[in-house]
UniProtKB/TrEMBL annotation:
Region described as Disordered: 275-315
PANTHER family tied to this protein: CELL SHAPE-DETERMINING PROTEIN MREC
Domain (Rod shape-determining protein MreC beta-barrel core): residue spans on this chain: 130-270
Lineage: Bacteria, Bacillati, Actinomycetota, Actinomycetes, Kitasatosporales
Known role: Involved in formation and maintenance of cell shape.
Protein name stated in the entry: Cell shape-determining protein MreC
Length: 315
């Protein structure tokens, strides 16, 4: 239809009639004069709407079910991810707590001995059945690490640095057969040299063949010239066996080391030496002796003894 003046007038008239019918319907309420027409339209078009709804509803329900199923799957996936993350975090927390405990213990040793240390983590270990007992740590020359520095942990002496790279370093463990460190007995001046024996106790040769030593005595590092490769006062271990003195120039001891060389994780490299020898101050407190129970036996006189004596008097 062309846009003429008559068509525009017709459109305005139809709009006016529509508004008038709407107004009459609203004001009439239930008695609206157009209610009959609305019911007739409902009668004619109602079945068509129901048929269309019946045809469309299964599709809509299926789409809704698929959408809800996808949402449930997504929720399950999110929960599974959250549980996995929680388990990983718990495992990580356990390991972190263990490392924090090791670090705290090592810092106490360093503080007592006045050692300036650079903390490190063990990232590799050499084969014990190979040529040497070594570990690799994640600090190197860029961290101020140099060859022949003392390595310790919260228990005691671990070893010394032998090879240094930019970001890593190799440590020769005190258990290695080629490892030797000067030692000093606790509360005395008896000096010796401790050597590694693999998975067996350290072997210590005291310079004094007549030295009075007993099981349970403790040793620390004596220190090296210019504190390289060993600083003084680092706990070494506890005497577990003493060979009988044969009148020789030296005396042999066997020492259980404080550090467990198969359970190394957090270690420290001594980068600043103490101003004075800490001597025995870094050693852990001595264990308290376990009290031994004593048994007291009380003898009670027999009740028949007086009767026998009395019978003898009567006879």
């Amino acid at each position: 239809m062309r846009d003429t003046r008559e068509s525009r007038l017709l459109l305005v008239l139809l709009i006016a009639i529509a508004f008038a019918l709407i107004t009459v319907d609203i004001r009439g309420g239930e008695d609206s004069p157009v209610d009959g027409a609305r019911q007739g339209a409902a009668t004619v078009f109602g079945p068509i709407e129901s048929g269309v709804s019946a045809a469309v509803d299964p599709v809509g329900n299926a789409v809704s079910a698929i959408r809800e199923s996808g949402e449930r799957h997504d929720r399950l996936a999110v929960l599974e991810e959250e549980n996995a993350a929680l388990k990983a975090r718990l495992g990580s927390d356990d390991r972190s707590r263990s490392r924090l405990k090791q670090l705290d213990k090592m810092l106490k040793v360093a503080g007592t001995g006045q050692y300036g240390i650079k903390g490190a983590q063990v990232i590799a270990i050499g084969a014990a059945q190979g040529f040497s007992w070594t570990i690799t740590i994640d600090v190197g020359a860029n961290d101020g690490i140099k060859r022949d520095m003392t390595v310790l942990n919260g228990d005691g002496l671990v070893g010394r640095v032998t090879t240094v790279g930019p970001h890593t370093a190799t440590v020769l463990l005190a258990s290695d057969p080629d490892f030797t460190v000067g030692t000093r007995m606790e509360a005395g001046d008896e000096l010796g040299f401790a050597s590694g024996q693999g998975d067996r106790p350290l072997r210590v040769e005291l310079l004094n063949g007549k030295a009075e030593v007993k099981k349970g005595d403790r040793l620390v590092t004596f220190g090296s010239q210019a504190d390289r490769p060993f600083v003084p006062g680092v706990p070494v271990g506890v005497v577990s066996r003493v060979d009988p003195s044969g009148g020789g120039l030296t005396r042999t001891l066997y020492v259980t080391p404080y550090a467990s060389f198969t359970k190394l994780d957090i270690v420290g490299v001594v980068v600043d030496v103490p101003k004075k020898d800490p001597r025995d101050t870094v050693l852990p407190p001595k264990p308290k002796p376990t009290p031994r129970p004593t048994v007291t036996v009380t003898v009670t006189p027999s009740a028949e003894a007086p009767a026998d004596g009395q019978n003898q008097q009567e006879q």
